Amino acid sequence: MDLEPIAPPEGLHFDELSKVRLLDAENAQQTEQLREECAGFVEKMNEFQGIVGGFIELMDKLGKTVDFEKMKAIGARNLLKSISKQREAEQQQLQALISERMAHLERLRLEYESLQKVHTDQEQLIEHLLSSN
After folding, report:
1. Is 0.70 surpassed by the pTM of this model?
2. Hey, is 5 helix, strand or coil?
3. pLDDT value at position 51?
4. Separation between Cα atoms, residue 26 and residue 5, nearest integer Å
5. Cα dihedral 79→80→81→86 (10° resolution)
């Protein structure tokens, strides 16, 4: 009896260790290589997601810092405007006070001149009365 090798049923294959496989050796090797490449790709994608997540977190912090500094600048600008308006108001008050004091000074000057005239008139009257006696 001659033993002829029996062909395996279609779709079944035997490897070098005589184990039954569904894929032939070449397809099995390509499948394993693809699995390794996919695992590498997934690992790189996870690393990329970590980097992107860190970048987004950094940009969020930077955005918050920018917003905080912007609010500080707006506050400082408003404070400067307020101080400027306050100084203008104080200047106007001082100008009004100066005008009021100048008017008061003018009234006092006129009163002084009037009193000097009265004084001069009274002195003349006294001299006239003394000389007529």
Report:
1. no
2. coil
3. 96
4. 22
5. 90
Of 25, 7, 3, 28, residue with least CA distance to 16: 25
Question: Tokens standing for 47?
Answer: 């690393």
* Tokens 């039954």 -> residue: 20
Q: How many CA atoms lie within 13 A of 50 on its CB side?
A: 6
What is the predicted pLDDT for the residue at 86? Answer: 96
Q: Residue 18 has what pLDDT?
A: 63
And the tokens for 114? Answer: 């009037």
pLDDT of residue 16: 57
**pLDDT surpasses 70 at 81:** yes
DSSP assignment string, 46-71: HHHHHHHHHHHHHHHHHHHHHHHHHH
Strand 13-14 to 20-21 pairing = antiparallel
Instruction: Answer yes or no: are the C-beta atoms of 13 and 22 closer than 8 Å.
Output: yes
